Amino acid sequence: xxxxxxxxxxxxxxxxxxxxxxxxxxxxxxxxxxxxxxxxxxxxxxxxxxxxxxxxxxxxxxxxxxxxxxxxxxxxxxxxxxxxxx
Length: 86
Known about the structure:
three-stranded parallel beta sheet, mainly beta, 86 residues
């Protein structure tokens, strides 16, 4: 949601695969607006299981680029910085 802070989390896959560690993918209900959202200082680690995407941004992460249903659904306005990926 706009204005959210996701900070100082430890996200680990131990024995189950994960699609995404932190996701900013939903266009609705804010029309892709992640203004003021900050994702920082997190540690994202795929230790014993697969993590497909550490930080997913936008609905096209999960679908084909030529999927016309998502053509105009872009997310914007969020800041992702100073995270550690292992």
